[in-house]
Description:
Mean pLDDT is 91; it is low at 1-14 and 181-189. The protein is of the alpha/beta class. Strand 11 (262-266), helix 8 (274-279) and strand 12 form a beta-alpha-beta unit. Strands 1, 2, 3, 4, 5, 14, 15 and 16 form an 8-stranded mixed sheet that branches. An 8-stranded mixed sheet has the order 6-7-8-9-10-11-12-13, with helices on both faces. It is globular. Helix 9 (302-313) crosses helix 10 (330-339). It has 2 domains: 18-80 and 367-403, Urease, subunit C, domain 1 (Roll), CATH 2.30.40; 82-365, Metal-dependent hydrolases (TIM Barrel, Alpha-Beta Barrel). It has 13 helices and 16 strands. This is Imidazolonepropionase. GO terms for molecular function: hydrolase activity, acting on carbon-nitrogen (but not peptide) bonds. Pfam families: Amidohydro_1. Residues 338-399 form the Amidohydrolase-related domain.
Amino acid sequence: MFGLAMWLHSAYAQETISPAGPQQKPVFLTNAVIHVGNGQVIEKGTITFDKGKITAVGTSVAAAPADATVVDLKGQHVYPGIIVPDSDLGLIEFESVRATIDVREVGEINPSVRSLIAYNTDSKVINTLRSNGILLAQVTPQGGIISGTSSVVQLDAWNWEDAAYKVDNGLHFFIPRQNTGGRRGPNGGDAPKTALDQVEGVRAFFREAKAYLQEAKHTATNLKFEAMRPLFKKEQKLFVHCDLVKEMLVAIDFAKEFDLDVTIVGGADSWQIADLLKQSNISVILTQPHSLPIMQDDDVDQPYKTAAQLQKAGVLFCLSNEGFWQQRNLGFEAGTAAAYGLTKEEALSAVTINAAKILGIDKMTGTLEVGKDANIAVSTGDMLDMKSSVITQAFIQGREINLDNKQKQLSEKYIKKYGLQ
């Protein structure tokens, strides 16, 4: 009971931040270094937006109307909001408290599961991402082999309906690890053989679902097969979670056999088959860029270099970070990729427009271009550099959002307690 009381006390002690209201009048951000997100940088530029949409970007923008809000940024940097793919944000609050975990369903094949309806807009973790310029996230289910569909959410909402940015954008397939080295399966069988059998089971499910959907009439409705319809119509993408080359070859095979739009999530060894991925039009979400390599004989800094190798090969890729509690650092991990072969603007694209393209939202966001949503972060310095980045303002669809969070409040509390001002 004591532990429960302490947990409830901490829950109610969190900061209370209400979502911002709709944009009421035009906003002009002037005298800024504007990082468009497509490689272009505009010095001493102005960006304007109204009714949630960007209306002008450049150095020769028309004068602001009398009712506009004009902010002289005095050389601060303006960026597109960072986008986090493959996130369990809002699905887990405390990893040690089972009642706050809603990221997985029972069973192995669950294409009809929708992560969006479980997304918790009151999660206190969300605010820690926003204060680092992360404004959108792909909320992804886990568990089983076919875990369900993900959706993209914007991070300033009253409920999951308000948060929805792109609904059910992809189905997630977790390929069982193709272990090597004689490791045994859970029932004493050979682990690689068990994994291959599971993959063949999924392949059979896909074939049955495709045959079912080609029938004009059904004697009975199969909800799991029905949930596959958007995938086969290419209204959804198949996100295949895997790291090893042999696993990625399975993903490529699925793309060819079923004519699917496939993205690999993980892709630790994707640098080894970058040319094949490019040829097969397979995109990659690189997860855990701050990690050790999978294979013992790989270079110790291979995870840092993989992004640049995919960029050189022409593979569409973006960056992500497993674990909701560390996804706030995604921009800084892009900065690491810039130190290992990418340019700074290529690294920015890896967490903005590239992610938007992979998630199917590039017509709405990802760059600071006229007509797109005003998802904007303002930083005193380089947003990809932990030392210089301080986010001073952020806007989601033109609405200026509150950048406070529990960690900031604790910092202010103890600075005051110990007289450290």
